[in-house]
Write a structure and sequence with these properties.
CATH superfamily of the largest domain: P-loop containing nucleotide triphosphate hydrolases
Strand order of the largest sheet: 6-7-8-3-9-10
Keywords: ATP-binding, Nucleotide-binding
CATH class of the largest domain: Alpha Beta
Shape: globular
CATH topology of the largest domain: Rossmann fold
Protein name: ABC transporter ATP-binding protein
Number of domains: 2
Number of helices: 11
Bound molecules: adenosine-5'-triphosphate
CATH architecture of the largest domain: 3-Layer(aba) Sandwich
Organism: Saccharibacillus sacchari
Structural class: alpha/beta
Order of helices and strands: EEEHEEHHEHHHEHEHEEHEHEEEHEE
Amino acid sequence: MLTVHAVTRRYGNDPALEGIDLAFENGVYGLLAPNGAGKTTLLKMLAGLLPPSEGEILYEGESIAALDEKYRMRLGYLPQRFGYYPNDTPRKYMQYLAAIKGMGRKEALERSELLLEAVALGEVKRKKMKTFSGGMIQRVGIAQALLNDPRVLILDEPTGGLDPKERARFRSLLTKLGRERIVILSTHVVSDVESAANEIVLLKNGRVFAKDKPEAICAMLAGKVYETRVSDHEVDTFRQNYPILAERGEAEGWHMRFVAEAESAMPHWELMKPGLEDVFLYVYRDGERQTAKQRLFPGELAGVREEGVQI
Ligand SMILES: Nc1ncnc2c1ncn2[C@@H]1O[C@H](COP(=O)(O)OP(=O)(O)OP(=O)(O)O)[C@@H](O)[C@H]1O
């Protein structure tokens, strides 16, 4: 178990994250928030690369700072950007990293072959990485993070640059990996984690806004997501009155997906099942980067009134 206990991280006097409490067991956790919300800061702290300003992070009950090398041996980490020599082949790169991690030649070779196959790079393992697409490089990154068969795998925006087919393959890899280890990945792309994550962590205003199963997160907006058609002359007022989740211009007006309280629902509105994308758009609808300085209302998680809608 990996636990984050009362962790705050400041840059100068600015708190990027404040009062974070989290617990992770085996499974896939999707850390979902817009850019600048503090995902990388949290992941770097979980990887032991950035010390918390306050609080502590424990692995199996011991501080990761004190465990140091012992924790790193159990950790796999893919940073947002990772360095490699463009002239290296993935095979050479993997073996180089395996040597740094203290693995023997035979084990290093076997493990890199296995992992390059697992991320579907077996056929190009002898090709120079400078010829690779962004998605292929990202897959090398995922493979290297798995070299030491980590118990804790931390992936910072691992799907950047992957095409839809590669994303689907990546999701199935994640599900397999999460069965016997803690996998924590950050993303601002809802579909990356909607089906593959056992739990979603939403950060807002530098705090944990929610941590729950995707269905439970979606249930925050249950009974509040509607669709309807609106005419051209009504659309501006409609946009002012309701938080809009999606809209589509049509020949005879606008098709709107929006959030409203059940009490104010009109008979011709169609009630929809909320998806994670709806919750994401609604929770972050102001679109501004918010830090811990702009505090949540106490009890926001339990449900506060925001523009007339309870979540
Ligand atoms: N080294 C630093 N010095 C000062 N401020 C920083 C530093 N690193 C991050 N920040 C600030 O802390 C906040 C959180 O940044 P962080 O990179 O953790 O967010 P993120 O959610 O990972 O965003 P992105 O997806 O864009 O990387 C941002 O306001 C950022 O500007």
